[in-house]
Hints:
The structure holds 2 protein chains of 2 kinds.
Chain A: H1 11-18, H2 29-33, E1 41-47, E2 53-59, E3 64-69, E4 78-79, E5 85-89, E6 96-101, E7 107-110, E8 115-123, E9 129-136, E10 141-148, E11 154-160, E12 166-171, E13 177-182, E14 204-209, E15 215-220, E16 228-235, E17 241-247, E18 258-261, E19 268-269, E20 286-289, E21 295-300, E22 305-310, E23 316-321, E24 325-330, E25 336-341, E26 345-351, E27 356-363, E28 367-375
Antiparallel strand pairs in A: 1-2, 1-28, 2-3, 4-5, 5-6, 6-7, 8-9, 9-10, 10-11, 12-13, 13-14, 14-15, 16-17, 17-18, 18-19, 20-21, 21-22, 22-23, 24-25, 25-26, 26-27
Chain B: H1 2-17, H2 23-58, H3 64-80, H4 95-99, H5 108-118, H6 127-130, H7 135-138, H8 140-147, H9 157-191, H10 202-229, H11 249-268, H12 273-291, H13 296-299, H14 303-331
Helix pairs in contact in B: 2-3, 2-9, 2-10, 2-11, 3-8, 8-9, 10-11, 10-14, 11-12, 12-14
Amino acid sequence: MQRRHFLTGSLLSLAAILFDRQAGANPNPAASDRASGWANGWLTGYGTADGTYGMALIDQTLTVQELQPTGYRLHDIIRHPAGQEICMPARRPGSHFIILNGQKSPMVVAAAAGRHFYGHGVYSTDGRYLYLTENDYAGRRGVIGIYAVAAGYKRLGEMPSGGIGPHEILLHGDGRHLIVANGGIATHPASGRAKLNLDTMVPNLALINITSGKRAAKTELARGMNNLSIRHMARTPDDDILFGLQDQYPGLDEFPLVGRWQPGSEARFLTAPAAGWQRLNGYVGSLKTDSSGSIIAAVSPKGGTAVFWQRESGAAIAQFNGPDICGVAATTVPGQFLITSGMGALTRVNAGPADIHVVARARADLRFDNHCLACLS
Amino acid sequence: MRFCLIIVVLLSISAAARAAPDYREINRALAEEVIIPAYNQLESATSRQKNHWISACEEPAADALDHLQAAYQTTADAWAAVFHWTAGPITRELRRERFYHWPERGNAIDRALAALRAAANPDRLLPPLFAQASVAVQGLPALERLLYGDSDVTQDPGACEIGRTIAINLASIAAEVSGEWRGAVVDNLRRGTALLPYFGPPLAALNRLFTSILTGFIILKDQKLMPGLRFKIDNANPKMLEGWRSQRPLRNLKINIDTLAESLAVLSRHLGADHRERIRHGMARSQQLAAQLAPLISGVTDPAERRKIFQLIDSLTSNQNEIANIFNQRLGLTIGFNSLDGD
């Protein structure tokens, strides 16, 4: 069996969702037929009212197609550089990921013993390797799992993430380094999603050399800000790393929640939105730049708001409000974003220095998850 | 064709049998029968506590500390019965955080109390200025720190003045919240009209209240139990438990579970008998497990007690999942997919 279709134990139920009963049959023709659509829309995880989960395609008209049931709640979706394949890792503390390829059967891969996923990952520039953030929960340390794509996503090994609770991971522009947001929070599958070290957490951003596995640079937040878990990031073409924070003790102080970092320098924060950082209610759930890289969007589902900044000046320029909004992705239009919500709302907004306006709205009978992946090329 | 017709008829019957719930009535019942009485209780407890502090600081009697501690325990009981409401007037102007800043980070309460005592501004304890102070120093946990410290707070005029200010602040917040609930909030819930920013139309309002109830289960597990319990017994830390100074961890827990059960009993009236019984049985099981626990402060480091606490956590998780599922299926209620359960 070349492909790792794990059809035993706990994976049976996942497999039943993914595969047709007839051996060799394409398990989900819809996914294959629509694969070409990946190049012209957005992919996102979703939940339904009856508690099922899957991955959906949102097309340019904001029409939603449920492409693939998954059997577990997704978080981010990662696209292979060649475009035809995507990886869908389970969110914390999930222990599976699914590879979906328009031309092949889905593949389910289990986490290594003693590891679970965080719902984020990235492919290498050449597409040969997949890197996923993982928890070595017995060792209470973050690791980056390394998977060989051509070998059916065989796990080759791992390297330290440079901290505890690694969450989002990006590829640096040089293709030789990974950037990891180590949220700093220790969890253990035996205690569900409980946070076990809030009093001692030390989040950081780490630059990891892919070849050596060594940490090339790191930044921590200023003393007294360790309660701010670094979770999500976006990277501009000139390797400005933007990051969003989640305050584990919201209300104690008004902390900045969005910043930027260039490896080798200290992290800096963007200016507060007009209503103050408290408008984000201590939580950034998703962060992206527009297609030009000049506008930054940070979305807070707890605050029910999205804030937009001009990257060059660092000035907050606009705000868009909506209940349970979280997913955000660029469109092909500079300054324009798609924003999704847990209540099924889809909104395209133009955010500029002069104003913000809604370009299109739609609604689906789905709950859209934290992240939204633009597949626009 | 005949088969299809039968299915259509059956589906129609099923749909008719599940007519849209009267969300307005559910909101009214929750507000009038559970929320308002609980906030009324908090208002009267904080008012009595305020009076005790005023007396104690003016003329400290020998048993003043006993009275203050008793008033604190009554107020903490009343708070434990509203701990989970994260919707409505308690959300305005950081009232919830000001009333009960917990869990704390990096000994923030002690640091804030020390800063307050050291501050030169004589007006710092006037209500308008105090309301702007750090949330860490404004609420019940700061009062606990004063009452259950090494020395008698009533014998220290400076500390007593701070305690009195906190007690006045708590009474003020409780009166504001309670008054708003009894007035505009319940009026709008009865009429089924939105009262922004607290509540939208009836279904949206009920979703917010329902989310609060489910959040209560998460608070119990993730904030009140696991940080003190930890996965390994070697890492257990009783000082991470809520209210350990005033010996309240288990007492809080029991009241919290009771108040969740009370809210769910009102919500469950709108379910069928089988679902109602499943929820009642599940909550009774959690209440029973909590009743069998030894004090948590010693229990988190005792292997046998830890097993019982983990059993309770499992029971709470099972209830939380079943409640989310049943109310979603039967009443169409949803939790905040990202705002409550994002990552």
